[in-house]
Amino acid sequence: MLTLYQFPISHYCEKIRWALDHKQLQYEIRNLLPGLHSLKTTKIAKRSSVPVLLHDENIVQGSSDIITYLDEKFPQQSLTPKDVQLKDEALEWEKYVDEEIGVHIRRCCYHILLEHPNIVISFFTQDGPWYGKYILPLMFPKLKIKMRELMKINEETTQASRQHLGTAIDKLYLHLQNNKFLVGNEFTRADLAAASLLAPFCMPEKYGLNWPDEYPSELQELIDEFQGKLDWVDTIYSKYR
Ligand SMILES: N[C@@H](CCC(=O)N[C@@H](CS)C(=O)NCC(=O)O)C(=O)O
């Protein structure tokens, strides 16, 4: 039995939904309500963050560790290359995008979206506990302050994150100009991680979230800056998701 504790909006959780689907595994999803999630996560795992995977009596936290665990326990459709050098390259790319895209795209998005509570509340309550849509609007003002604090989201850090994101998007784009995949000749966890983490800019249907009809113009303008360099995300989603 596999159970994924997660947030539907989280791009790190999307890595795991995708990995589980790629391996055609049956799993149960438990959507937690951001702000109250740690009541559950800290009870079952070391840190408060999602994704957390429960498999039999094993608990694995963190998207990269979960993919490694899944590849060990369910080797079909492996996302980790067998070849040692390619494996190292895939893990290195994954670490790079986790750190240089995951954190920064989230900061850039929330810096803008936290000022649009309706969008964030919809993201946070989709398919979650029934009481979410009643309680979250009440919690939101405090949650917003907490999120800005915890994720260091402010004007200055967001400007720096924009630079990180630009550098990482350029690096991926250049690499994928000459290579079909980030590593070797097949789809690996590196491609899966990069595409999942950039998905909030591309809003792919298979992410499984009801994206808003349109983003606030400030966010759309930011996305437009990178748009020419993100076509590969849609390609990977349409071929492998
Ligand atoms: N490096 C971690 C990052 C996970 C992460 O940042 N999760 C966020 C959601 S996107 C979270 O759970 N935040 C709330 C918290 O840390 O309590 C991973 O790859 O799983």
Report on the structure:
- By secondary structure, the chain is α+β, with helices and mostly antiparallel strands.
- It folds into 2 domains: 2-73, Glutaredoxin, CATH 3.40.30; 84-240, Glutathione S-transferase Yfyf (Class Pi), Chain A, domain 2 (Up-down Bundle), CATH 1.20.1050.
- 61% of the residues lie in helices and 7% in strands.
- The chain contains 10 helices and 4 strands; from the N terminus they run E-H-E-H-E-E-H-H-H-H-H-H-H-H.
- The chain has helices at 11-22, 38-44, 63-73, 84-113, 117-125, 132-150, 155-178, 189-202, 217-226, 231-240, and strands at 2-6, 28-31, 52-55, 58-61.
- A 4-stranded mixed sheet has the order 2-1-3-4, covered by helices on one side.
- Helix 1 (11-22) runs parallel beside helix 3, helix 4 packs antiparallel against helix 7 and helix 4 (84-113) runs parallel beside helix 8.
- The mean pLDDT is 97.
- The structure holds glutathione.
- Glutathione binds next to helix 3.
**What is the number of E strands?**
4
The percentage of residues in β strands lies in 5-15%
Indicate the overall shape. globular
Number of domains: 2
Summarize the main sheet: 4 strands, mixed
Q: Please state the second-level CATH architecture of the largest domain.
A: Up-down Bundle
Task: Report the helical percentage.
Answer: 55-70%
Spatial ordering of strands, largest sheet: 2-1-3-4
How far apart are the first and last residues' alpha carbons, in Å? 22 Å
Q: In the CATH scheme, what's the topology name of the largest domain?
A: Glutathione S-transferase Yfyf (Class Pi), Chain A, domain 2
Q: What is the CATH top level name of the largest domain?
A: Mainly Alpha
Rg calculated over all Cα atoms: 17 Å
User: What ligand species are in this complex?
Assistant: glutathione
Report the mean per-residue pLDDT as an integer: 97
Give the low-pLDDT segments: none
Q: What is the ordering of alpha helices and beta strands?
A: EHEHEEHHHHHHHH
Question: How many helices in DSSP terms?
Answer: 10
Structural class by sheet pairing and helices: alpha+beta
